[in-house]
Write a structure and sequence with these properties.
Elements: E1 2-4, E2 7-13, H1 46-56, E3 60-66, E4 69-77
Antiparallel strand pairs: 1-2, 2-4, 3-4
Length: 80
């Protein structure tokens, strides 16, 4: 976590299979599952819920990914 320009910035990183670059624009859509996902009990709603909570609190969420894992960033405004 860091503070940048009146925002808290969080970075969450994993070392999983990553997400295909051409699918990153859909990763926060409800019911989206990446084409390389083999988890049968996934419903594709977790990241959509995260995005909804963060945007309702005036934050932002985004990601980058490669075959070595994913990195998710989200920001929340500092309220005075």
């Amino acid at each position: 976590m860091s503070i940048e320009e009146e925002e808290l910035v969080y970075i969450i990183e994993d070392s999983g299979i990553g997400n295909p670059k051409h699918e990153l624009s859909f990763i926060f859509d409800s019911y989206f599952r990446a084409s390389n996902s083999n988890i049968l009990n996934s419903h594709g709603i977790g990241l959509a819920i995260c995005k909804e909570i963060i945007t309702q609190n005036n934050g932002k969420i985004y990601t980058d990914s490669n075959d070595m894992g994913s990195r998710f960033y989200f920001t929340m405004p500092i309220q005075h």
